[in-house]
């Protein structure tokens, strides 16, 4: 057995067999892992020959091993073949052993799900620091045109505020690494680090560019903005952080129904998720009772149910939840709970459909596996993964189509009535054709200013609002 590869492969293969959401034949996992090396050295090839795994190099058989079909026996065979591949391939020796392990698990997860992944030792260490409370700059980021990353909010008293940063500024790079709105989670992580450490930000404001060195501190992430306008309490949550539930509770208390008689708009457009536990607490702040969400997987510990505690700090006020194609993960949990439990009306477009939960598995090489081990189910039992949350009022087709949809909202003639009923009846695994058909009823779209007017229009029509609530 390959002495250096064996322990990590054994731990990883055993975890996949025991915990991954989908059961997979161990021999297939071993074959995929071997094929991952082809990404580093295209002269390598891997094949399955009955109970054995074979490694080829430059068109000839380099080595083969009986692998059995248990996670540990397959891991031992793969480790031996890894050692032989390393011996024969200059490209592998140059890349290094962690690169080989990473390529192997990446190929395995290409066949399993979009969110499981291998984290190398340094990335795993940084992740542990964040989970233990790494400091940040007091910035909330959001997408801007042409995949730029913009500042959405600045926390009072934070390093960012002291540096004069303000919403709308573009953060082009952090420590020389370009930021991309397609990977906002990575952008937020780039701003985090140990308290007292520094990060160099490249900022663009209009035509002006400037580099600023900021020191990370413990300022809370500003994750909610609240305002009352024309009888509506507008709440925007760009990300769920540890501070979000407290900020929401304060907003609902500070702005009672008398100040916002029409109701509440909860804007989750562009919210890629964040901390699931905090999202559950946000949902709990609006619900009188019911199951917020549940999770299911093959491992007994993955089976969970999250119940509302009966707080409903909004005191039953009418609620519209704004979503778009970038609304994902924990934000989808909140939107689905409001819709399924008849607590609010969802307006916008189909959401992203990210409904898997990962568990972290430490590895002997210092890395970790983030392993998808459970799927999130909405209160009525349908899966969020791939399907996403469908709105009762679709705004993605433009102003005229939105007006037509509004006219039939809450009636059997609504174009979303049938897709919503079918989506709520769906059970995992949902066929790809059904997912495409349901999401095609209101395809994912980026939120627009007109969504705000649509949300207000729903609140202004009590009968349509009541008819659109799930029953």
UniProtKB/TrEMBL annotation:
Please give one Gene Ontology molecular function term for this protein.
serine-type endopeptidase activity
Q: Which Gene3D superfamilies match?
A: 2-enoyl-CoA Hydratase, Chain A, domain 1, 2.30.42.10, 3.30.750.44
In this chain the PDZ domain maps to: 118-206
GO BP of this protein: proteolysis
Q: Which SUPFAM superfamilies does the UniProt entry name for this protein?
A: ClpP/crotonase, PDZ domain-like
Top-level class of the enzyme under EC nomenclature:
hydrolase
The yes or no answer to whether the keyword Hydrolase is present is yes
Q: Which UniProt keywords apply?
A: Hydrolase, Protease
Reported EC number(s) for this entry are: 3.4.21.102
Q: Please give the superkingdom of this protein's source.
A: Bacteria
Entry-linked PANTHER family: CARBOXYL-TERMINAL-PROCESSING PEPTIDASE 3, CHLOROPLASTIC, TAIL-SPECIFIC PROTEASE
Name recorded for this polypeptide:
Carboxyl-terminal processing protease
Source organism of the structure: Muricoccus pecuniae
Q: Print the organism lineage.
A: Bacteria, Pseudomonadati, Pseudomonadota, Alphaproteobacteria, Acetobacterales
């Amino acid at each position: 057995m390959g002495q250096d590869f064996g322990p990590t492969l054994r731990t990883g293969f055993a975890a996949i067999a025991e915990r991954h959401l989908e059961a997979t034949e161990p021999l297939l996992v071993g074959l995929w892992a071997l094929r991952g090396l082809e990404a580093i050295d295209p002269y390598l090839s891997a094949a399955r020959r009955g109970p054995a795994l074979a490694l080829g190099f430059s068109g000839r058989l380099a080595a083969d091993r009986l692998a059995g079909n248990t996670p540990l026996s397959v891991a031992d065979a793969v480790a031996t073949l890894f050692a032989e591949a390393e011996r024969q391939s200059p490209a592998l020796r140059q890349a290094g052993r962690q690169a080989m392990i990473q390529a192997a698990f990446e190929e395995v997860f290409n066949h399993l799900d979009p969110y499981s992944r291998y984290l190398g030792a340094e990335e795993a260490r940084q992740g542990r620091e964040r989970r233990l409370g790494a400091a940040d700059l007091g910035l909330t980021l959001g997408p801007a045109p042409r995949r730029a990353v913009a500042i959405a909010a600045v926390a009072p008293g934070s390093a960012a505020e002291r540096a004069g940063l303000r919403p709308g500024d573009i953060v082009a790079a952090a420590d020389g690494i370009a930021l991309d709105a397609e990977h906002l989670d990575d952008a937020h992580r780039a701003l985090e680090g140990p308290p007292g450490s520094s990060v160099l930000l490249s900022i663009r404001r209009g035509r002006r560019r400037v580099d600023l060195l900021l020191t990370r501190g413990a300022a809370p992430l500003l994750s909610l903005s609240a305002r009352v306008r024309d009888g509506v309490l507008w709440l925007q949550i760009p990300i769920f952080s540890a501070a979000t539930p407290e900020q929401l509770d304060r907003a609902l208390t500070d702005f009672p129904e008398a100040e916002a008689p029409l109701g509440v708009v909860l804007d989750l457009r562009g919210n890629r998720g964040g901390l699931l536990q905090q999202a559950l607490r946000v949902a709990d702040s609006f619900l009188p009772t019911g199951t917020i969400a549940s999770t299911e997987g093959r491992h007994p510990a993955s089976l969970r149910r999250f119940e509302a505690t009966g707080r409903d700090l909004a005191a039953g006020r009418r609620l519209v939840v704004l979503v778009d194609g970038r609304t994902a993960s924990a934000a989808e949990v909140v939107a689905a709970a409001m819709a399924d439990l008849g607590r609010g009306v969802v307006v916008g477009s189909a959401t992203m459909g990210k409904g898997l939960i990962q568990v972290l598995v430490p590895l002997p090489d210092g890395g970790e596996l983030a392993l998808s081990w459970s799927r999130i189910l909405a209160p009525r039992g349908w899966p969020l993964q791939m399907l996403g949350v469908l709105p009762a009022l679709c705004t993605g087709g433009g102003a005229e189509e939105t007006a037509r949809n509004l006219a039939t909202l809450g009636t059997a003639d609504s174009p979303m009535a049938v897709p919503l009923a079918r989506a709520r009846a769906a059970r995992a695994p949902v066929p790809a054709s059904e997912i495409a058909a349901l999401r095609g009823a209101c395809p994912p779209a980026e939120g627009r200013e007109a969504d705000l007017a649509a949300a207000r229009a729903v609140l202004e029509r009590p009968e349509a609002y009541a008819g659109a609530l799930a029953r």
